[in-house]
Design goal:
Length: 187
């Protein structure tokens, strides 16, 4: 059995001006509705691994679905919100203006420390990743191989769950766009 966790292509998100923390939700909505940049093509390795997987799973975010198309997928087997990226918290009060990437890094660190205002908690995210990992395992049992075209943190959380269940593969499936990790279970 094989599960491949692949990160989507580079999102087509325009540069946002600096914003206050209470405006971050607009940037998150824009990022979550974005497709991918067509010029940022998948690697040869990503295309090859996609071609040998029997089942293709995507999150319901456009960047995941468009990445499947860019990889040459003819039919996506499952589109599931469970495989979305981990929610990013933000606060509801005005602050100084910073770039969205600085706010995202700041709130992601706070999220790891337990802050989850306007988002799922890290505990909820881990639970969702655990359930997602078991869904992928069931698909791999049924179909032999599964490719998840997912997201950075979600893929890492799922990888951790797979490793804890006895699967063999890298600790991290990759942080860059189009990077992937292969996980095997030998009975």
């Amino acid at each position: 059995m094989q599960i491949v966790l692949l990160r989507h292509g580079k999102p087509d998100v325009s540069e946002h001006r600096k914003l206050r923390a209470n405006e971050l939700h607009r940037w998150i909505e824009s990022y979550n509705s974005a497709g991918i940049i067509s010029e940022h093509v998948p690697s040869r390795g990503a295309i090859e691994i996609t071609s040998v997987c029997n089942t293709v799973v995507c999150s319901d975010l456009e960047r995941s679905i468009e990445s499947a198309r860019a990889l040459g997928v003819k039919k996506i087997s499952v589109i599931e919100p469970m495989f979305r990226e981990m929610g990013l918290p933000f606060c509801s009060f005005p602050t100084l203006k910073l770039s969205p990437s600085i706010w995202a890094a700041f709130f992601r660190v706070l999220w790891f420390l337990g802050y989850s205002s306007n988002s799922e908690s890290i505990h909820e995210a881990r639970l969702r990743a655990s359930i997602g990992a078991y869904r992928l395992i069931e698909m791999a049992r049924k179909n032999g191989s599964v490719l998840l075209i997912g997201h950075g943190f979600t893929n890492r959380f799922i990888a951790k769950e797979l490793l804890s269940e006895g699967w063999q593969g890298p600790k991290s499936p990759g942080k860059k766009y189009w990077e992937f990790g292969e996980y095997y279970y030998v009975q």
